[in-house]
Predict the structure.
Amino acid sequence: MTARGVFITFEGGDGSGKSTQIQSVRDWFESRGREVIVTREPGGTELGTEIRRLVQNGPEDVDARTEALLYAADRAYHVATVIAPALERGAVVLGDRYIDSSLAYQGAARSLGVDEIASLSAWATRGLYPSLTFLLDLPPEVGARRRTDAPDRMERESMDFHERVRHEYLRLADAEPDRIVVIDAVGTVDEVFSEIRGVLVERFEGGSVTIDEASDSVPAPARDTPASSSSEVPAASEASEAPETDRDSEKQRQKNADKGSARKPATMVGALGESQGALWDE
């Protein structure tokens, strides 16, 4: 029987280390025999790469609505040509940014309206949402200190702008605690992954509920466009974790004890994309 696909996204401000952690999660799943595909937005397709160039290093006079529509166009093409097909194939897909980024950056920080951007994104993706999102939370000033390259158009925004982004991310996490798991990204790479690994062990290897069970029984939270539920999560691995992983799992279970185990159904898969090799990156 073919394993069901699952889509996991990684969100956070600049310098939070998303790409670095995605590679660790990729290794974790591949060691359990799963096909893993890594993607990013924008940039997971040839068209997305060009859109990424335009929004990051294009004209300074690009207005907020144009920016939001460019991201939505990239996302629509990404879902239609890469994400949905990969989901049907049963891959585990790790996405560097998705809809939550548009809600935080364009909806909140650009003041276009979170509800309006949510409706646009739902239409562009035909209502496809991730089953699990890791929010790597980091104060903007810390992220700025980690930057090693020249800042792009978005990174050059004011500290107040990036504070609004962070605030919206945390608001979204409060609204969807079963999908969005907040990870403190201030620590070392290993410390951050230890927290992420604890969540993975709980949800994929013998936690209180399997992802198949959760996606079969829990409807998606209400949105402007209903989410489809065409994917679920891989079966638990028979391989046992090392003792320290068990402790990480128990620690995470204690943190989430009051949240319950119900989660939004997995509904997406992502595209093959390149990651950055820096210690701290996007």
Remarks:
- The chain is about 50% helix and 10% strand.
